[in-house]
Design a protein that fits this description.
Elements (H helix, E strand, L loop, with lengths): L2 H20 L9 H27 L21 H44 L12
């Protein structure tokens, strides 16, 4: 099977699964090839549904069908101590970076000053290099 057909089959299976979970009917706009792929993909989904139904009915703790189970994800609560620590670390990091920037600027200025002084010293004519005046 080519990778394109495998991809299309995976997409069709995913769409069939989503539609089975949401209870929606397949889209009418799908072309003939997509519908045939969906029908082919629906068989494994139906088998999975039947297997899941067997597991639920065979388990002793099976819930009645009229009971709805809602799963709520608890919101992560950041305590004020953790928040304070995070803010302190961020402030410390910023101060550290500012110190590095300040030291780098000072080093640059000092190096540039030394370089300018060396250039001025070397560019000034040396009095001993002068030729004696002609008589």
């Amino acid at each position: 099977m080519s990778w394109k057909k495998e991809r299309d089959l995976l997409i069709a299976q995913t769409m069939a699964f989503v539609q089975s979970v949401t209870g929606k009917e397949p889209d009418a706009e799908l072309d003939v090839d997509a519908k045939s792929i969906l029908e082919t993909a629906a068989a494994p989904v139906e088998a999975a549904k039947m297997h899941a139904a067997e597991i639920v009915t065979s388990s002793p703790a099976a819930l009645p069908k009229d009971v709805q189970v809602s799963i709520q994800i608890p919101r992560t609560v950041v305590s004020s101590d953790v928040r304070t620590e995070m803010l302190a670390r961020v402030a410390n990091f910023r101060a550290h970076q500012q110190r590095f920037n300040r030291e780098r600027a000072e080093y640059f200025s000092a190096t540039l000053t030394r370089l300018r002084a060396a250039i001025e010293k070397d560019s000034a004519p040396d009095p001993s290099d002068r030729a004696p005046p002609r008589r």
